[in-house]
C-alpha cells in the first residue's frame, strides 16, 4: 500500500484507527461491536472510524456478521505495509515514520510498565535488545533485508488459520530501527 495523499495520512493519525487496523490484522473479519469489546470503546466509535478507514481503502466490507445485522470489516491485504519511495514528499515520509515510531514506542513502554500475569517465558523472550554496530549505509540496508527474511516464516504463519491460534502462540510486535550516530563530517 503506497500512501502519498496527506488526507489519507490524517486518516491513519487517530490512535483508535491504528488500534482497529492492528486488531483486524490479527482477527479479521470483525464487526464494530467485536472491535469495541476488544478495544474497550463504544461500538458507535468503532463503526465511525472503520468507515473512515474504508473511505481511504485501509479496510473493506467483509459482508454481514453472523446475526446478519452487523457489517464485518477486514483488511484488503492480509499483510498490510506502507511503502514509501525516495520520490515521495519528505513531509509525507516524516509523518508516516513519526506515526509508526510513536505507536511502537507506546507499545514498548506499555509492555515495560505492565504488571500483568505475563509468563516468565514471555518476559524472557520478549523485551529489548540494543547494540551499536559499525557499518555502511549499504550494510545497514543488507541487515534490514536479512532481518525481514528472518521474520518471514513467522509472518507467513500468522496468515495461516491453522497455525495462528495454537496454544502458547500470540502475536508479537517486532520493530527494527537503525539510526546513525552523529559524526563530525556531514556526509561520510
From TrEMBL:
Residues 7-93 form the HTH arsR-type domain. InterPro entries: ArsR-like_HTH, HTH_ArsR_DNA-bd_dom, WH-like_DNA-bd_sf, WH_DNA-bd_sf. This is Winged helix-turn-helix domain-containing protein. Pfam families: HTH_20 (PF12840).
Amino acid at each position: 500500500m503506497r500512501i502519498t495523499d496527506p488526507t489519507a495520512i490524517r486518516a491513519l493519525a487517530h490512535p483508535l484507527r491504528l488500534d482497529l487496523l492492528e486488531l483486524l490484522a490479527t482477527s479479521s473479519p470483525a464487526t464494530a461491536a467485536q472491535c469495541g469489546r476488544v478495544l474497550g470503546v463504544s461500538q458507535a466509535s468503532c463503526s465511525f472510524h472503520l468507515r473512515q478507514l474504508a473511505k481511504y481503502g485501509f479496510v473493506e466490507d467483509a459482508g454481514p456478521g453472523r446475526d446478519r445485522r452487523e457489517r464485518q470489516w477486514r483488511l484488503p491485504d492480509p499483510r498490510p505495509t506502507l511503502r514509501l519511495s525516495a520520490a515521495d514528499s519528505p513531509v509525507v515520509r516524516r509523518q508516516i515514520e513519526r506515526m509508526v515510531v510513536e505507536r511502537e514506542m507506546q507499545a514498548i513502554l506499555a509492555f515495560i510498565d505492565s504488571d500483568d500475569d505475563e509468563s516468565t517465558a514471555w518476559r524472557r523472550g520478549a523485551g529489548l535488545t540494543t547494540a551499536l554496530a559499525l557499518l555502511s549505509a549499504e550494510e545497514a540496508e543488507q541487515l534490514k533485508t536479512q532481518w525481514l527474511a528472518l521474520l518471514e516464516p513467522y509472518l507467513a504463519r500468522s496468515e495461516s488459520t491453522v497455525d495462528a491460534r495454537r496454544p502458547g502462540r500470540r502475536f508479537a510486535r517486532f520493530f527494527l530501527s537503525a539510526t546513525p550516530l552523529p559524526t563530525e563530517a556531514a556526509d561520510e
